[in-house]
Amino acid sequence: MDRRNILTLIGASSLMAACQETSSDAASGDQNPEINWRLITSWPKNFPGIGQAPEDVARMVSEMTNGKFKIKVYGAGEMAPALGVFDNVSSGAAHMGHSAAYYWKGKLAAAPFFTGVPFGMNAREMHAWIQEGGGQALWEELYAPYGVLPLAGGNTGVQMGGWFNKPIESLEDLQGLKMRIPGIAGEIWNKAGGTSVMLPGGEIFQALEKGTIDATEWLGPANDLAFGLPQIAKYYYMPGWHEPGSMLEFSINKKAFEALPSHYQFILKIACQSVADKMLNFYTAANAKALETIKSNPNVEIRQFPSVVLDKLYQMTQEVLSEMAASSDDVKKVYDSYTSFQKQAQAYNRVSEEAYYRVRTAIESIETDI
Amino acid sequence: MDRRNILTLIGASSLMAACQETSSDAASGDQNPEINWRLITSWPKNFPGIGQAPEDVARMVSEMTNGKFKIKVYGAGEMAPALGVFDNVSSGAAHMGHSAAYYWKGKLAAAPFFTGVPFGMNAREMHAWIQEGGGQALWEELYAPYGVLPLAGGNTGVQMGGWFNKPIESLEDLQGLKMRIPGIAGEIWNKAGGTSVMLPGGEIFQALEKGTIDATEWLGPANDLAFGLPQIAKYYYMPGWHEPGSMLEFSINKKAFEALPSHYQFILKIACQSVADKMLNFYTAANAKALETIKSNPNVEIRQFPSVVLDKLYQMTQEVLSEMAASSDDVKKVYDSYTSFQKQAQAYNRVSEEAYYRVRTAIESIETDI
User: Are residues A137 and A55 in the same domain?
Assistant: First the structure.
């Protein structure tokens, strides 16, 4: 995902004024006061999939309050920089944000676990951990000192492993390979011998076309196709070991939230939860359709990473996660909760959803080019 | 699931009166009128998992309307019989129901596709078809002549294949085997040589203990454990080929819905959608925990059905579904939409979620007793 697109941050004072106004409205005794919120995001305005979630929540909240509670959505750079979401929600400059927790790793070392980690939980396991496994409480505890309330904000599902301009058949093929791959996954890539490169989404196509990079990950078939990646790279690798179910986040300024009438608070929270199902539905359908188009391109080959490469990446992942857990008691607590829930949920999926996928595919013996 | 528990149907007149009252309230000019609805279900009151969805929706709708829109939930038999939900919502005797579409197969031959069919779509594929693949429009069209609006009402995820008191190693082992397995799956079971038996949930334990039946399916580890099934059967089979992602349904009386202020309509619909994520989260966590308990029982063995048995069940499934599709143009239309969406979504999952499960399990080489 695009991590830069950093424009000027607008002055916080006018937004703070809006926030104060909200509070006094709510206290005035009108049970259904008019409220106006500003929601900042890390995505270009109306970006397909992930960028639709804040638009959906704004629309739903307005519909459910008869137009009384309005949320205006700002794309990255319109009011705050793409990576300024957390800070601006924390300060109260914006009432609410939509982004991904792993962007706040520099400030909060445990944050990546609330988006997802390499070889970690998929969408279904992740959401179950947040709701039923203690994840939500740990997430709230992590953000509490900043006056921010986090909520799950949709999920991309398993991403694709990325586009490569040469086949990956051994560990040697990884050595020095320049791949656009951000965050923890980038660190792991480097430990395995590759060279991770950080580039905003908008610069990927040109960099890969010119050979400045040898490979790139982006999101999945729908977003990858929209970026034109099948035109410039031959090998489309799976699975997305590095992002097995990236959960987005809504962040809400706590003071602004507490100033809302309680039924508005419920409306906001329930609108956010309804997005979880909605975004996965969108990605399942849009990615399935886009994959058909990608497969019909004779210049593209879909391949699975060889097991020797996946083994190495897995070992390096365990090293990086262990180092993170050892870095502080706060991270250790989240790491322990995450990994123990994953172990239990994974054992269940092995006899249910995973077993069903395996059996269905074996029985149907569908021809496939992979 | 329990399909009987049939008690007397209460007179519709008092409920119709409540419905009228609702309508006149809404028309009175008060933007936030007091509304009282009755919701009937096919489940015992507060049944874990599936029975929680209507309680959740009732609570959320009340919270979001400041207590103005109240929905009272009735368990099976309290106001209408377990399988009387559709008819009583259609007549207006109840404003709303929570059940599963495949129970209305006798009236509407295409209905089972809106719950799920053997070897069909899993939860994620199913919800994507409903939201993005034209499923919702077909479902509404099917129910329109009855004045009923259907909405997705949560999903159990992949169920388990069932409990058997002897191992299934060949097709011969299936012959005459008496299994409690309802609906289309029961027909398929019979075609493969078995004998399907219909029993309400509450009678399963005794029937299996006494040897009146040789096997039973129920739901998944959490509900199966609560029923005591590990105490009386040795073999726990996977995967649940017969129910790969059973979607529940909310049914709403259209006239009652149209009489609501539009923001109440949105509140109701969005509360229903938020349940989709919530129920899967519950089942993932509860089933994972229950499976650990089941595995720690030395008398239970978890096994996968042999491929010769699954192949046969798959062939019989195709026969039954083809016969259904040939029975009328209405069924054919739904069948075509369902199967073509499944084909596309399945091809995508094969390179994303399914590939990830496969790779993660292979790498971790976790010891397992299956």
Answer: yes
- Give the mutation candidate from A353, A365, A370 for the B interface (greatest B CB count, under 10 A): A353
The reply to whether residue A288 touches residue B345, judged by beta carbons under 8 angstroms, is: yes
Nearest to B147 by CA among B250, B15, B253: B253
Measured between CA atoms, how close is B19 to chain A, in angstroms?
Answer: 22
Q: Which positions in chain B touch A240 (Cβ < 8 Å)?
A: 352, 356
Per the structure, the complete domain to which residue B46 belongs is given by: 12-157+245-285
Q: Are A24 and A105 in a shared domain? A: yes
User: Which of B52, B277, B282, B283 should one mutate to test binding to chain A, selecting the residue with the greatest count of A CBs within 10 A?
Assistant: B277
Kindly identify which residue of chain A lies nearest to residue B243, measuring between CA atoms: A356
Number of domains composing chain B: 1
Residue B25 lies in a domain: yes
Q: What angle do CA A343, B158, B99 make, to 5 degrees?
A: 130
The domain that holds B258 is classified in CATH as: 3.40.190.170
Q: How many CB atoms are closer than 10 A to CB A223? A: 23
Chain A closest-CA separation from residue B281 CA (Å): 4
Query: Does residue A280 share a domain with residue A145?
Result: yes
Beta-carbon separation of A357 and B122 below 8 A: yes
What phi and psi, each to the nearest 5 degrees, are found at residue B109?
-65, -25
For chain B, the C-alpha Rg in angstroms (whole number) is 21
Query: In chain A, what is the straight-line distance between the N-terminal and C-terminal CA atoms, in Å?
Result: 26
ipTM of the complex: 0.91
- Contact state of A261 with B66 under an 8 Å Cβ cutoff: yes
Whether A331 maps to a domain, the answer reads no
Sign of CA dihedral B22, B25, B26, B32: negative
pLDDT-based confidence at residue B202 (cuts at 50, 70, 90): confident
* Distance separating alpha carbons of residues A261 and A253, to the nearest angstrom: 15
Give A367's contacts in chain B (Cβ within 8 Å). none
pTM as predicted: 0.92
What residue of A is the nearest CA neighbor of B64?
A: A263
Could you tell me if A151 and A167 lie in one domain?
no
Nearest chain B CA: its distance from A370 CA (Å): 8
Whether residue A359 lies inside any domain: the answer is no
The verdict on residue B86 lying in a domain is: yes
User: Which tens digit of pLDDT belongs to each residue from B254-274?
Assistant: 999 999 999 999 999 999 999
Angstrom distance (rounded) from CA A81 to CA A231: 30
For the stretch A252-281, what's the b/e string if a residue is b when 16 or more beta carbons lie within 10 angstroms of its beta carbon? bbbebbebbbebbbbbbbbbbbbbbbbbbb
Q: Is A172 helix (H, G, I), strand (E, B) or coil?
A: helix
The shortest C-alpha distance from B286 to chain A (Å) reads: 8
Q: Tell me chain A's radius of gyration from C-alpha atoms.
A: 21
pLDDT digit string (tens) for B67-108?
A: 999 999 999 999 999 999 999 999 999 999 999 999 999 999
Strand-by-strand arrangement of the A35-41 sheet:
A69-74, A35-41, A96-99, A247-253, A148-155
Q: Clarify whether residues A97 and A225 are in a common domain.
A: no
Instruction: Give percent above pLDDT 90 in chain A.
Output: 87
pLDDT tens digit sequence for A145-182:
999 999 999 999 999 999 999 999 999 999 999 999 98
A144 Cβ contact list (under 8 Å, min separation 6): none
What's the CA gap between A353 and A30, in Å, rounded? 49
* Residue A132 and residue A32 share a domain: yes
- The pLDDT assigned to B22 comes to 46
A104, A253: one domain: yes
Return d(Cα A302, Cα B310) in angstroms, integer.
29
Q: Residues A252, A236: one domain?
A: no
Nearest to A356 among B240, B274, B277 (CB): B240
Give the nearest chain A residue to B125 (CA atoms). Answer: A284
